[in-house]
Design a protein that fits this description.
The chain is about 10% helix and about 30% strand. The protein is mainly beta. The radius of gyration is 15 Å and the shape is globular.
């Protein structure tokens, strides 16, 4: 997919659009675990993901396309062994579809088409009742202090200090 065929863009510094798309060059550089998870719909072992206990303020983006997926403000400890979120930053960046192999609802990035994990209806009721159970291997974390430099300034308003 090239920058003119599909993809979504957002403004970064001085009106320059940032385009989110599946990037084959990035896919070739994924670690074996990142490839297995994002491209082969695998699941990392519970408790093994590097972002499970990350409490820093920032956003999580698709490791393949860079599209913003989840904010630290919506992360919670579900006790399942995977990073869990109550909602995506922008539902347009997340596709949900029935998972015919594992059951439930699979979550994929909209533009990178990366397998991210699954969504369940057992999340905190006071925050919408959903639990997006996401593989760390599918994500890249961008700290709040680095968001502007990385082109994600538009999402800083969704990142609060962790309680």
């Amino acid at each position: 997919m090239n920058e003119t065929s599909g993809g979504s863009s957002m403004k970064i510094r001085e009106g320059i659009p940032r385009t989110f798309r599946r990037d084959e060059a990035v896919i070739r550089k994924l670690t074996p675990e990142q490839y297995r998870v994002t491209q082969q719909c695998a699941t990392e072992s519970p408790g093994a993901g590097k972002y499970l206990h990350n409490d820093e303020p920032g956003i999580y983006v698709d490791i393949v396309s860079g599209e913003p997926l989840f904010a630290s403000s919506n992360k919670f400890d579900s006790g399942t062994g995977w990073p869990s979120f109550t909602r995506p930053i922008d539902p347009a960046h997340v596709n949900e579809r029935p998972d015919k192999i594992e059951g439930g609802t699979e979550v994929r990035s909209a533009h990178g088409d990366s397998h991210l994990g699954h969504v369940f209806a057992d999340g905190p009721q006071d925050r919408g009742g959903l639990r997006y159970c996401i593989n760390s291997a599918a994500l890249r974390f961008i700290h709040r202090d680095e968001m502007e430099a990385e082109g994600y300034a538009d999402y800083k308003n969704q990142v609060e200090d962790v309680r």
